[in-house]
């Protein structure tokens, strides 16, 4: 334990502090014992967990240059070779690819209308499937996972998932998520001697990479330069412009960028939608049209002008990290979940209550501690797209249906399964058409 390192449970040789973690909800208990900044050992690798708004903002925004790197020698960074977006080192190459990807998703090849059309098209399929089972309980999981996957696949690959494509593209994402958070990853990260062995799970990564290579080659044959139909076309246009001179935009970088967007854009959005359904069904008064209509208007207006948190907003409390010494290169885990229910930051920190986002005049406001997309230079690159998806899908469903928790479903379990994204436990839901007088269309 380096001198003046944040406090934490005592590590064991080889295993580090893994046995101190409650695997259901690994970070919560330790926060209670050790406060906002504490340390763990993942095998013999020290790590620091940061909780709460002030410490998180201090690290990710005020000291962004020190806290925006990525760990090396983990399963996932070895696979991506620190290329692409998510696991790329903080530096000019990552910055150029991030800028290109953001502009492409936002303005260039695919503007707002392009996204909206694809999202609404997919929302139509969701509605169709829900209509078929109106009045009867159904398990919404696959409907929403497929919808989110279809949206990102159309944006990145220009393809909606037919049955064959679903098998090809969705299954490796699920397998990869399980691998990255499963026992193989822990073993890989804590036992360097196994890294050069032909480990069985490497097959999944290779398979996923080869799929993307094939899709890029297909695009090369059919594309019309300058008339991009999807992200791959946009990237190929960019490669044409840059020639072989810019290593930040090589084909290898392109493959990892595409994998990153596909991976980051799938379970994140679908699990958020599923969590929203779970809460809305169990808080039916919040689904009410008068409430929704009033606030949907405000939210629509605000969506256009929402500015992400950026630049230092220091207060005297922003010094929580300073008391400790966190050596350069230490793995740092910002626990965003802790900020989202932090006492003192929210009117009702432990409640699903839209009042958390309304000011005294009933207008929509975005509290500073609303950080589900993180903050600072590494904050989510797909935030705009994700917000558009969440908004269009949920508003369409709320206008069309009443979402009902089935009578025999028992008490809802709000505790998500911990993983790369937090996944609500499987549940059933019922939908019922809203009458026209309720404002349905
Ligand atoms: C509700 C949906 C989503 C949530 C809650 C979410 C959340 C996040 C968070 C917290 C990060 C920062 C992770 C870190 O610090 O390493 C992140 C990064 C990222 N997200 Fe999202 N995300 C969502 C949807 C999406 C979508 C739809 C896309 C793709 C279009 C996307 C692409 C990315 C990428 C590429 C990064 C890495 C950015 C970088 O390192 O520069 N995300 N996301």
TrEMBL record:
Cited SUPFAM superfamilies: Cytochrome P450
Domain of life from the UniProt record: Eukaryota
PROSITE patterns according to UniProt: CYTOCHROME_P450 (PS00086)
Biological process, per Gene Ontology: organic acid metabolic process; xenobiotic metabolic process
Bilayer topology annotation: Peripheral membrane protein
Gene Ontology CC terms: endoplasmic reticulum membrane
Binding site for heme: 380
Database matches in Pfam families: p450
GO molecular function, one term: heme binding
Primary location group: endoplasmic reticulum
Co-factor requirement: heme
Family recorded in the similarity comment: Belongs to the cytochrome P450 family.
Protein name (database record): Cytochrome P450 2F2-like
């Amino acid at each position: 334990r380096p001198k003046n390192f944040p406090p934490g449970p005592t590590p064991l040789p080889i295993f580090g502090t893994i046995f101190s973690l409650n695997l259901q909800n690994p970070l919560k208990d330790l926060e209670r014992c050790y406060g906002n900044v504490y340390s763990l050992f993942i095998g013999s690798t020290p790590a620091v967990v940061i909780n709460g708004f002030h410490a998180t903002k201090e690290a990710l925004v005020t000291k962004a240059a020190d806290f925006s790197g990525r760990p090396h020698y983990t399963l996932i960074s070895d696979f991506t070779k620190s290329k692409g977006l998510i696991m790329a080192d903080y530096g000019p190459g990552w910055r150029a690819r991030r800028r290109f990807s953001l502009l492409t998703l936002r303005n260039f090849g695919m503007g707002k209308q392009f996204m909206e059309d694809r999202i609404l098209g997919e929302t139509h399929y969701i509605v169709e499937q829900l209509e078929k089972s109106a009045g009867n309980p159904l398990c919404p999981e696959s409907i929403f996972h497929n919808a989110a996957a279809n949206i990102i696949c159309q944006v990145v690959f220009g393809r909606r998932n037919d049955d064959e494509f679903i098998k090809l593209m969705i299954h490796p994402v699920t397998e990869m998520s399980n691998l990255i958070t499963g026992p193989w990853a822990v073993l890989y990260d804590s036992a360097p001697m196994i890294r050069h062995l032909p480990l069985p799970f490497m097959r999944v990564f290779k398979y996923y990479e080869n799929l993307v290579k094939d899709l890029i080659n297909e695009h090369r044959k059919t594309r019309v330069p300058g008339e991009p139909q999807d992200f791959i076309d946009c990237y190929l246009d960019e490669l044409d412009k840059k020639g072989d001179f810019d290593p930040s935009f090589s084909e290898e970088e392109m493959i990892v960028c595409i994998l990153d967007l596909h991976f980051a854009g799938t379970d994140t959005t679908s699990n958020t939608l599923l969590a929203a359904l779970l809460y809305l069904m169990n808080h039916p008064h919040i689904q009410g049209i008068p409430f929704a209509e009033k606030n949907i208007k405000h939210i629509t207006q605000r969506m256009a002008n929402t500015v992400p948190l950026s630049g230092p907003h220091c207060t005297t409390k922003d010094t929580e990290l300073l008391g400790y010494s966190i050596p350069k290169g230490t793995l740092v885990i910002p626990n965003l979940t802790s900020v989202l229910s932090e006492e003192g930051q929210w009117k009702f920190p432990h409640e699903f209550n839209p009042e958390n986002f309304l000011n005294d005049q009933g207008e929509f406001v975005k509290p500073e501690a609303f950080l589900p997309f993180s903050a600072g230079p590494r904050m989510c690159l797909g935030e705009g797209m994700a917000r558009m998806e969440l908004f269009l899908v949920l508003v369409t469903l709320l206008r069309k249906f009443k979402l009902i928790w089935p009578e025999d479903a028992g008490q809802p379990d709000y505790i998500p399964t911990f993983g790369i994204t937090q996944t609500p436990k499987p549940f059933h839901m019922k939908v019922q058409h809203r009458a026209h007088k309720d404002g349905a269309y």
